[in-house]
Design the sequence.
């Protein structure tokens, strides 16, 4: 009798426990499921802010600086640039630059495609339509930008439409998809389509250079036209922008690099205290100045990379760019080739990214500037054989930078014209991530290549690399090949 | 009445034996010879004496004493009624000790009746070890159990692997159960080893399948001590003082002058700026002596136990104050435990409750292993240039200019002065169990247990510290930060069972068990980071010095954080065991498990096992054989793993809780604005990882149990392996958690011990040896080409796990001093390709053979315990050596004297590359620094003396012993680095050598 009571109790207990689904059906707090992410135009705007947070040119800047001739190994270097071989021209599928650039831009494409697909499911009211369109327009422009970046780094020849390029992607892929590379023609077609779409959806307000707008679309079109050899188109677009964003005086220029104004900036990526990039990341992703120094842009800020001596030698007194690029605390040994201790007595501290808002080394990332538009016009003129026009444009830039009239160069050949453009680009756009792409595009036509001072490359003997070397196309990174067997068969030549 | 007697006897003891007494005398023999030194004790008291050289004893006993107990090693303890008698002739019976119970977690069995592969260690292996981590003490003691400790931090975490790694991406460590409560396997620093009665390692599926979802990596069942019924009050004090020091290294590091000359030659650093004369006058500082030290540890432990007829209690209080060899590392802990056990007079109802409260303060330097020259003290010890002197340090501000790498030791010395990091932790493990015999053979039991941890982490970087000043924003005159985080983890487990035992037809016995188990765990964490500290009022952990946010800048904008996670499991299962005449046995278990992790994909998993045994020694044809036990066992079964990511630490139960779904997150976006972005790409096909294990074993005991051992052969196959599967970057990530592939571990365990000298009055010696051989093979990897490569490591079908995949280093080119390598065709090249020239090495970081051996000897109270352990077939990159041989470090860090052999002129034949070799960076994908990390270590020595009962009794105690311990005494290894055992690849915290003196007193 008693036994039965117990057994019944136990059975009840067992049954009771069996229904304990609370142990298994658990929803973790704070989750936003994918189907509820975008439900209003306001949500789309927040989605756009998430996408804008992804593009990061610091990976390109540090790669261009160390792989070419912008920097030298600093007196306070702890193996940076040498340990991974970048400064020794070592580049392969395990290198960080290709992986960072590839992954960063595909993260942006993925984010934008999700936003665009999310927008499809939202029907804006009449009062929301304008904002909805403007958000979508920026999304398309971001997608174009990411594809353009991938195109810039991973194809062998910008002007060859049939050459393998990046993967053109205008939808959200599934995790098991393994996509092969598109051709340049396909990628350029998608960039063009996205830019057209963006232009038709965006509003006409171009006052905020921290966001993509119709002027930035125009700048992208100009750069793309120049890269692909359509210099006629490039010239028109770049001239329009140069008119709208004229070159400034010396003081404004100096202040622009302290982020006190955005005078010559068509587009820049904002970096501010407390944002996701507010961190010391010497490999890229954080403060841009931390790509050159650990602490600040002075001689006591542990500048592990210094300005390359050869680049320094190109700078002249009176040029405001000298003040932007070289910190006052630098030690300059005019007799440096005969110095007893070149490393410690000739310390050229890079100060283009000295910091803003009180935060050393943190600066906005300048992506499109009017000076680049001037160079695109000059390239178009050089391409067309108008060498005097090239000389006039370069002198115009130098006049602005020196604050006094500068003489025009005498340019007698296309090679000389392109050479002069490349030399000026080297100074004007130093440490902004252009040098590697410029040598790739124009190095052969201009008769220029990586040019390091012999003392700078004594450490590893890596002084020169030809501008048509296979390493002027990045390898498809191992991280991609590991998860994509199709692309494994499509590695760039030389790797 | 009994309790009263115990109390009475206690009082006797306390007031000096002044009550009425009488004297009893007698002789103890084994029937043929008298026994010298046998213990004669009045039951329930500490009144006792040892027999003399003629086997005689004489003892004054209280008038009301009823029984005496006579005990002698190798003989059964006897209890003799002394009422009305005063002369005794006692004959001891040899060796019929009780069958040792084998703890199987949910069930227990006896050695002859157990069908499964288990190994039990008793408290004598564990207690009084100087190592604060009980887990580290197990290394080398159990065949197949490999414990790799990656840090010398006192009580630091270890990697525990039983019979090879079962998973690639998921959890690989066994389940730990303390008194029926599953506990966090990464947190043993709060557990006091002196409280432990036994540790049982369950190895095969027959034993672990009943743990279903958590048994895949084996189960380790820890039982704490109990009072024991009808036992007198026992008080045991043990105390220990230890001194630790660093183990030897073999890098042959340069002294100050050599380092300066190397710099002069290379043209970098201080050496290149001063003359040879000045170099000759430099006195060095060996920073190993500054950042590493020889600290003292002391510990005290007091245990009390007693038991009455129906109730017993065990209480323990422990205190440990242990400093690590790395500066600023320390563990201080307090343990309090009370275990109560009781039963009803009719023995139908029994209950127990175990309460363990532990409080510890742990200073564990962070950034260990990192390359941060201003944060990693280990880097300061190993890599600082020896010509920098501690006298050069003034304060943090003084280091700001000039800022040079060579000042690394000064940056770190400043951090020692100004940085605070400690964790206060309260850990409670509580359990209550009760069982009731409903009817003959039918028992209902319930066990409810909880594991609660509350940890408070404080980190503060003082406002005047070098680091705070260095990274201060322009114009910020009160930099520094304080960060505090409170983490609470609570898990509870409720197990209900109904067990039925029935013997019928004489020889048949069945045991049936039905169980349900319900598990939940909760995690919450919150904290803040305060930016800005006022040096006038700052004190680590206190908020008086906090600087408030202002409208001018965002320098002092503070951050708050909070996180909640939940986990849960539910299971029901059953077991059936059948025995025929103690000769044959068979067991089944079946278990259904549900995990919250797969709630939306594959919630339920089913696991089972079959095991059987044949006690050959019970067969009639074995009569007269030397075997006391000869048992053949076999088992096959499956176990599951639901811990898909190896989160480690507090997140163990919670990591990867909902990886099956896609999520967005609201977080900080562009320019710090709010944003909505993708946070997780889900894998909706995730399911249980399953281990199938087959095991065949033989247990043997022979020569009157003097030779004992077991041999086991096993094969484990893990299916649906958890691992990161590479995916295309178009998904915004390049790795996703997935069930991919299948892995096999094959091997054997062998365990033997032999009492080769048994002389009750003289020298006793026992030796033991255990070994495990384990070989993994990836049997299926469904990626397009059957491989997954990650840097220098590849996992591929048909080969071992995480095989090193590098090109071969081939020396130095005598013509130019560059490094030489072999390309894929085996031809010499200076420019190998990391894409096409790598070769498979058949080497990885997991052991082939590992095990231990040792001996125990005692002679008239003097005892010696020696234990060795060994590991073979382990290969690791010696990045510390690579750093000491890296010319690009010259001027900043310390080098090996091997650098003096660097190539200088064409024709030089050397194995050290030119300081200016152009392809130095290419060695990073080569096997240049891949080294053999096999070792043999004299892990532990204990030499002690237990005072003879005669002396002990005169002192008024029942036992008194003193001993000397040494841990990590000598290591033989080809590895040149700081600690062969560490898994940390670079700048890790090496395990110390520890010498200690201890004292045990029992009342």
Sequence:
């Amino acid at each position: 009798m008693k036994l039965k009571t117990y057994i019944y109790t136990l059975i009840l207990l067992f049954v009771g426990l069996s229904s304990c689904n609370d142990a298994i059906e658990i929803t973790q707090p704070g989750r936003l499921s994918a189907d509820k992410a975008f439900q209003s135009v306001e949500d789309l705007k927040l989605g756009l802010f998430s996408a804008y947070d992804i593009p990061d040119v610091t990976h390109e800047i540090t790669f261009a600086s160390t792989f070419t001739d912008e920097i030298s190994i600093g007196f306070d270097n702890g193996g940076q640039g040498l340990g991974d071989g970048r400064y020794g021209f070592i580049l392969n599928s395990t290198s960080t630059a290709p992986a960072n650039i590839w992954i960063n831009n595909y993260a942006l494409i993925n984010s934008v495609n999700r936003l665009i697909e999310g927008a499809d499911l939202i029907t804006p009211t009449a009062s929301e339509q304008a904002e909805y369109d403007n958000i979508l327009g920026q999304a398309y422009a971001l997608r174009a930008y990411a594809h353009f970046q991938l195109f810039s780094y991973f194809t062998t020849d910008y002007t060859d439409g049939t050459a393998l390029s990046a993967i053109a992607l205008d939808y959200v892929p599934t995790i098991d998809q393994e996509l092969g590379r598109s051709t340049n023609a396909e990628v350029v077609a998608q960039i063009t389509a996205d830019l057209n779409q963006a232009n038709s959806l965006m509003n006409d307000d171009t006052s905020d250079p921290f966001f993509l707008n119709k002027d930035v679309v125009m700048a992208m079109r100009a750069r793309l036209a120049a890269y692909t050899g359509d210099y006629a188109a490039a010239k028109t677009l770049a001239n329009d922008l140069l008119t709208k964003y004229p070159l400034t005086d010396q003081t404004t220029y100096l202040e622009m690099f302290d982020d006190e104004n955005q005078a010559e900036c068509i587009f820049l990526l904002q970096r501010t205290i407390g944002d996701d990039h507010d961190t010391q990341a010497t490999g890229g992703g954080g403060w841009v100045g931390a790509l050159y120094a650990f602490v600040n842009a002075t001689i006591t800020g542990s500048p592990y990379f210094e300005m390359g001596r050869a680049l320094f030698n190109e700078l002249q007194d009176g040029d405001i760019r000298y003040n932007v690029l070289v910190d006052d605390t630098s030690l300059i040994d005019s007799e440096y080739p005969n110095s007893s201790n070149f490393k410690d007595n000739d310390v050229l501290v890079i100060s283009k990214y000295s910091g803003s808002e009180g935060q050393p080394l943190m600066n906005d990332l300048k992506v499109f500037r009017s000076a680049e538009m001037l160079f695109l016009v000059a390239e178009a003129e050089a391409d067309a054989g108008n060498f005097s026009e090239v000389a006039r444009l370069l002198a115009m830039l130098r006049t602005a930078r020196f604050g006094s009239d500068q003489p025009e160069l005498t340019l007698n050949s296309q090679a000389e014209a392109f050479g002069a453009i490349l030399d000026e680009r080297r100074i004007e756009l130093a440490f902004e991530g252009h040098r590697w792409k410029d040598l790739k595009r124009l190095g052969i036509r201009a008769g220029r290549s990586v040019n390091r001072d012999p003392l700078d490359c004594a450490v590893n003997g890596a002084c020169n690399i030809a501008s048509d070397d296979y390493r002027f196309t990045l390898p498809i990174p191992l991280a991609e090949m590991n998860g994509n067997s199709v692309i494994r068969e499509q590695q760039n030549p030389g790797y | 009445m009994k309790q009263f007697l115990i109390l009475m006897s206690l009082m006797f003891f306390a007031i000096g034996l002044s009550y009425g007494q009488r004297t009893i005398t007698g002789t103890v023999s084994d029937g043929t010879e008298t026994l010298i030194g046998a213990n004669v004790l009045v039951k329930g008291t500490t009144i006792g004496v040892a027999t003399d050289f003629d086997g005689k004893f004489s003892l004054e006993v209280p008038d009301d004493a009823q029984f005496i107990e006579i005990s002698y090693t190798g003989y059964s303890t006897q209890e003799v009624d002394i009422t009305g008698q005063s002369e005794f002739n006692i004959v001891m019976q040899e060796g019929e000790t009780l069958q040792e119970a084998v703890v199987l977690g949910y069930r227990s069995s006896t050695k002859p009746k157990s069908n499964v592969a288990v190994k039990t260690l008793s408290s004598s292996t564990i207690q009084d070890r100087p190592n604060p981590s009980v887990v580290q003490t197990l290394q080398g003691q159990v065949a197949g159990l490999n414990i790799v400790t990656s840090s010398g931090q006192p009580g630091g975490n270890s990697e525990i692997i039983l019979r090879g790694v079962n998973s690639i991406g998921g959890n690989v460590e066994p389940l730990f159960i303390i008194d029926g409560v599953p506990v966090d396997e990464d947190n043993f620093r709060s557990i006091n080893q002196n409280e432990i009665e036994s540790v049982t390692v369950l190895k095969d599926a027959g034993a672990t399948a009943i743990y279903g979802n958590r048994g895949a990596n084996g189960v380790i069942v820890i039982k704490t001590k109990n009072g024991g019924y009808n036992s007198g009050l026992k008080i045991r004090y043990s105390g220990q003082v230890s001194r630790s020091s660093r183990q030897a290294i073999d890098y042959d590091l340069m002294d100050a002058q050599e380092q300066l000359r190397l710099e002069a030659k290379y043209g970098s650093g201080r050496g290149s700026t001063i003359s040879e004369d000045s170099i000759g006058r430099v006195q060095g500082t060996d920073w190993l002596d500054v950042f590493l030290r020889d600290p003292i540890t002391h510990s005290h432990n007091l245990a009390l136990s007693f038991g009455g007829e129906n109730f017993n209690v065990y209480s323990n209080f422990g205190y440990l104050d242990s400093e690590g060899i790395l500066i600023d590392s320390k563990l201080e802990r307090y343990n309090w435990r009370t275990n109560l056990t009781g039963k009803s007079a009719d023995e139908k109802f029994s209950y127990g409750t175990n309460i363990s409260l532990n409080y510890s303060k742990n200073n564990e330097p962070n950034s260990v292993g990192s390359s941060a020259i201003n944060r990693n003290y280990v880097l300061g010890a190993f890599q600082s240039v020896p010509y920098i002197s501690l006298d050069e340090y003034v304060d943090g501000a003084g280091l700001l200019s000039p800022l040079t790498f060579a000042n690394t030791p000064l940056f770190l010395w400043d951090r020692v002065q100004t940085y605070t990091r400690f964790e206060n932790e309260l850990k409670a493990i509580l359990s209550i169990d009760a069982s009731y015999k409903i009817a003959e053979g039918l028992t209902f039991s319930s066990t409810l247990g909880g594991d609660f941890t509350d940890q408070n982490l404080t980190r503060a970087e003082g406002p005047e510290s070098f680091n705070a000043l260095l990274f201060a924003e322009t114009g910020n005159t009160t930099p520094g930060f304080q960060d505090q985080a409170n983490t609470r983890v609570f898990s509870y487990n409720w197990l209900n069972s109904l067990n039925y035992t029935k013997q019928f037809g004489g020889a048949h016995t069945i045991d049936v068990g039905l169980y349900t188990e319900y598990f939940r765990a909760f995690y919450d964490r919150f904290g803040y980071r305060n930016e800005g500290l006022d040096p006038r009022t700052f004190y680590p952990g206190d908020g008086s010095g906090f600087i408030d946010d202002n409208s001018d800048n965002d320098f002092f904008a503070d951050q708050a954080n909070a996180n909640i996670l939940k986990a849960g499991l539910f299971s029901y299962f059953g077991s059936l065991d059948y025995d025929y005449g103690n000769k044959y046995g068979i067991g089944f278990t079946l278990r259904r498990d549900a995990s919250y992790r797969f709630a939306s994909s594959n919630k339920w998993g089913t696991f089972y096992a079959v095991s059987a045994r044949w006690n050959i020694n019970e067969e009639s044809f074995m009569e007269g054989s030397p075997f006391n036990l000869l048992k053949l066992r076999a088992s096959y079964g499956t176990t599951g793993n639901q811990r898909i990511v190896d989160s480690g630490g507090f997140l163990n139960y919670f990591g990867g809780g909902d990886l099956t779904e896609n999520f967005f997150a609201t977080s900080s976006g562009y320019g710090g604005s709010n944003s909505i972005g993708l946070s997780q790409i889900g894998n909706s096909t995730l399911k249980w990882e399953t281990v199938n294990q087959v095991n065949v074993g033989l247990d043997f005991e022979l020569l009157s149990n003097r030779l004992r051992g077991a041999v086991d052969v096993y094969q484990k196959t893990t299916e649906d392996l958890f691992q990161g599967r590479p995916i295309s970057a178009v998904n915004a990530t390049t790795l996703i958690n997935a069930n991919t592939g299948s892995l096999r571990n094959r091997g054997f365990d062998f365990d033997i011990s032999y009492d080769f000298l048994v002389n009750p009055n003289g020298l006793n010696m026992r030796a033991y040896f255990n070994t495990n051989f384990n070989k993994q093979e990836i049997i299926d990897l469904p990626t397009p080409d059957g491989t997954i490569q990650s840097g220098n490591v590849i996992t591929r079908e048909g080969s071992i796990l995480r095989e090193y995949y590098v090109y071969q280093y081939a020396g130095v080119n005598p013509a130019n001093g560059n490094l030489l390598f072999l390309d894929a065709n085996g031809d010499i090249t200076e420019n190998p390709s990391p894409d096409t020239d790598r070769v498979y090495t058949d080497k990885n970081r997991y052991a082939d053979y590992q095990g231990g051996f040792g001996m125990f000897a005692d002679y008239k109270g003097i005892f010696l315990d020696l234990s060795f352990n060994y590991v073979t077939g382990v290969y690791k990159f010696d990045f510390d050596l690579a750093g000491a041989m890296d010319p690009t470090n010259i001027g900043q860090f310390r080098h090996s004297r091997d650098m003096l052999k660097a190539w200088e002129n064409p024709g030089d034949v050397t194995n050290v590359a030119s300081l200016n070799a152009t392809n130095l960076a290419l060695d990073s994908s080569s096997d240049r620094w891949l080294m053999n990390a096999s070792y043999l270590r004299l892990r532990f020595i204990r030499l002690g003396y237990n005072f003879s009962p005669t002396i002990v009794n005169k002192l008024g105690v029942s036992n008194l012993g003193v001993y000397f311990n040494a841990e990590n005494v000598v290591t033989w290894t080809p590895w040149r680095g700081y600690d062969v055992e560490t898994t940390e690849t670079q700048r890790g915290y090496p395990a110390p050598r520890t010498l200690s003196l201890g004292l045990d007193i029992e009342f």
